[in-house]
């Protein structure tokens, strides 16, 4: 049986987790995700959308995408916010430059 100190710790942790979750929900806002036209990217887009909406309270908008136009738009305009999968073979230098300049980030 837990002591009263353990009970207080559990209550504190529950309150802290709820506060952190609510803060994430409040700060997310609108997120755009590129909907690429191949199966693995479509799956990644769907999973990202579910996580962002259900887990963080984001308003997710899916926008049409393909490798070259999406990468170009991300490096020049900052939109869409997320491209779940991009084949970087022909874009390596353009993307590396945008990362170095802080215009985009690569996550994986």
Q: How does this structure look, described?
A:
With 108 residues, the protein is mostly helical. The chain has a domain of 72 residues. Helix content is 58%, strand content 11%. It contains four helices and two strands, in the order αβαβαα. It has a two-stranded parallel sheet. Helix 2 links the parallel strand 1 and strand 2. The N terminus is likely disordered.
Which short descriptors sum up this protein?
108 residues, mainly alpha, 4 helices, 2 strands, globular
List the helices and strands and how they pair.
Elements: H1 4-28, E1 30-35, H2 39-56, E2 59-64, H3 67-77, H4 92-100
**Low-confidence blocks of residues:** 1-25
Overall 3D form = globular
Question: Helix/strand/pairing class, anyone?
Answer: mainly alpha
Total beta-strand segments? 2
- Give the oligomeric state of the chains in this entry, treating copies of one chain as homo and distinct chains as hetero: single chain
Strand content: 5-15%
| Fraction in helix | 55-70%
Strand adjacency order, main sheet: 1-2
Mean pLDDT: 79
Strand and helix order = HEHEHH
**What is the terminal separation in angstroms?**
43 Å
**Helix segment tally:** 4
Rounded radius of gyration (Å): 19 Å
Please outline the major beta sheet.
Answer: 2 strands, parallel
